Amino acid sequence: MMHDQYIRRETLVSMTINGVLSLLFFLLVFGIAPSVAVWGIGNWVFDYLPQSFMITLMSTLVPGALTAKRLKAGVLTPSGSASRLPRPLLLRALLMAVVAALLGTTLVAALAGAVGIVTLGWTSALVIKVLYGVALGAVVTPIGLRAALTNA
Predict the structure, then answer these.
(1) Phi, psi of 68 (to 5 degrees)
(2) Predicted model pTM
(3) How big is the CA angle at 98 (ends 92 and 103), to the nearest 5 degrees?
(4) What is the mean pLDDT of residues 65-76?
(5) pLDDT of 132-149, one tens digit each?
(6) 61: CB partners within 8 A, 6+ apart
(7) What CA–CA distance (Å, rounded) separates 147 from 50?
(8) Integer Cα distance of 119 and 24 in angstroms
(9) What residue spans of the chain are helical by DSSP H?
(10) Would you kindly state where each structural domain of the chain is located, as residue ranges?
(11) Are 55 and 140 in contact (CB under 8 A)?
């Protein structure tokens, strides 16, 4: 299987899973209410920290482990290119997760602050969180997979 095709397929799987998990965790954390508070510990912006961290961690660990298994079995071949990311999968996943959590949450906080919102309608808050989870998976999964294919 060609690497681009493999990365595309695994990224689509990751995006789907991240969208569903973002929906479920939103319901768990915020429930169903007319609006969602934006600022403060445990509120909408703050929740981007654990969301970004966990999506990135799992979108790097799981596909990375599956890729390593497929490389070992000969189903995939190493890409032969270099990666600046750490070779050990857990270290790579943790590094990517910390960076994504900090960057993602900072970006969301900056945008929310620039717009000046204090609360969001429940549906808007949900849709934005789910789309963010899908988009984050679309960004981090290929990065992690390229490193996994390199670090065989």
Answers:
(1) -60, -40
(2) 0.94
(3) 125
(4) 93
(5) 999 999 999 999 999 999
(6) 89, 90, 93
(7) 23
(8) 20
(9) 3-30, 48-73, 89-115, 122-150
(10) 3-150
(11) yes
